[in-house]
Design brief:
This protein has ten helices and three strands. By secondary structure, the protein is mainly alpha-helical. Strands 1-2-3 form a three-stranded mixed sheet, with helices on one face. Strand 1 and strand 2 form a beta hairpin.
């Protein structure tokens, strides 16, 4: 069963919307706290939250565009556009989030300013940790529904759901960044040394860059073109091999086009079938594959005698 069937666009859209609202509120609160306290870590977190707001808009845009029906110029639909926007999100997380955070920390190291009313920054960070961790837990619940008994790391390695990979990555980066900011701002408050606040900003930048690189690495394989997950390929092959009219499955190829899958297969049919009977059996097989595996939207089966 496809991820689209189990989770659906609805769950992903809800996760994106919740993350957007959470980040927008946090971005405004962090900006106010950063300007009032002079904290570099807090300013880095504010920029990160604004970047995440932009990212969620792009993910939502990609999700909506991917649902456009196929046309003459795009006969296989627009499903892969979600991979493009997800890759753009990774670039924005790298540049607007990671690089700016490092720049802000480096700037504060060389021109440290006095920190004011640190408790305000710590209060906002505490609220942010609660909000972002809640968003992360919500995204993980969606993933749990999809992966079922499959271990999380195995799902993360094999999933073709670009939006969920990005959401998990963003929420993880946001939660870790807030925790790091809280730790270093607290140390700066205790010691009275603003250098720790600047170091915290640099650490946040490193975290964001690391996660953005991971997201980009996962998405690039989908942009290039990736087969269906192993379990799905095995299920499709079993359906074909169990067909009474099929002697041998010579070869099968699958490719994800967004949440939907294209299947091409070569089969050796049993001897004695007329052309009309063979065509009828192939048509019935294609219908059966799409019935059992709804994510297979395109099905091209070719009779042959060799691979």
């Amino acid at each position: 069963i496809s991820e689209k069937t189990m989770a659906g666009h609805g769950d992903t859209t809800k996760a994106i919307l919740y993350a957007f609202l959470a980040n927008l509120g946090l971005a405004i609160a962090k900006t106010g706290a950063a300007l009032y306290t002079g904290s570099g870590s807090m300013m880095a977190e504010a920029v990160h939250s604004f970047a995440d707001c932009s990212n969620q808009i792009l993910l939502f845009l990609g999700l909506k565009q991917s649902q456009k029906p196929a046309d003459e110029k795009h006969p296989l639909g627009y499903g892969k556009i979600t991979y493009f926007w997800s890759f753009i999100v990774a670039i924005m997380l790298f540049s607007m989030g990671g690089l700016y955070s490092i720049y802000e920390g480096w700037h504060k190291l060389h021109e440290p300013g006095e920190l004011n009313q640190i408790w305000i920054a710590l209060l906002v960070l505490t609220f942010g940790i609660f909000l972002e961790s809640s968003a992360l837990m919500g995204a993980l619940r969606v993933v749990k529904k999809i992966r079922r008994e499959k271990p999380f790391m195995q799902w993360l390695k094999n999933t073709r759901s670009a939006e969920l990979v990005v959401i998990i990555g963003e929420d993880s980066a946001a939660t870790l960044g807030l925790i790091v900011a809280f730790i270093f701002v607290s140390i700066a408050a205790v010691t009275g040394n603003p250098m720790y606040d600047a170091i915290g900003s640099i650490c946040i930048g490193i975290i964001l860059i690391f996660i953005s690189i991971f997201i980009g690495w996962r998405i690039q394989s989908l942009i290039i073109g990736r087969s269906a997950e192993p379990e799905l390929r095995e299920l499709i092959d079993n359906i074909i091999e169990k067909d009474d009219a099929i002697e041998t499955l010579l070869n099968s190829i699958t490719m994800h086009l967004g949440p939907e899958v294209m299947l091409a297969a070569k089969i050796k049919m049993k001897t004695g079938l007329s052309i009309e009977e063979a065509v009828k059996q192939i048509n019935e097989l294609e219908v059966e594959i799409q019935r059992q595996v709804p994510s297979v939207k395109w099905c091209f089966i070719e009779p042959d005698i060799k691979e």
